[in-house]
Specification:
Residues 14-110 form the SnoaL-like domain. With 117 residues, this protein is an alpha+beta fold. Helices cover 32% and strands 39% of the residues. Strands 1, 2, 3, 4, 5, 6 and 7 form a seven-stranded mixed β-sheet that branches. The chain starts with a helix and ends with a strand.
Length: 117
């Protein structure tokens, strides 16, 4: 069973930072359950295909920006969380937030993203 820390790291690097849609889709298949639910302030989507479309849209809004971890992993039981920042490589972040995941059978089943105010 894969732990929340490993999944959060793969999610950030191989999904939200992956510009190639085919490699991103392969990572989504490995990291997320079929019926994953992703919720942020603007949307709630269900399933890998809707998640992939959402990530594609998010990446299009900030070309050249990258997500980086901004603090330690914290968790308990099947829940994990980690803060992140979004910005140009080596530059000041333009956005930050916290991802919270629920892991089921070694994959992320639920992902909540809470943006910093």
């Amino acid at each position: 069973m894969t732990g929340a820390g490993d999944l959060l790291a793969r999610m950030l690097q191989d999904v939200f930072n992956e510009p190639d849609p085919q490699r991103r889709a392969a990572a989504i298949d490995e990291v997320f359950t079929d019926d994953v639910v992703f919720v942020d302030a603007e949307r709630a989507v269900t399933g890998r295909e809707e998640l992939a479309a959402t990530v594609t849209g998010l990446l299009a809004q900030g070309p050249g920006l990258v997500f980086t971890p901004a603090g330690p992993l914290r968790g308990v039981g099947d829940l994990g969380m980690r803060p992140w920042r979004l910005g140009p490589p080596g530059g000041e972040p333009v956005l930050g937030g916290l991802d919270v995941v629920q892991v089921v059978d070694g994959r992320i089943a639920r992902l909540w993203t809470v943006l910093d105010t």
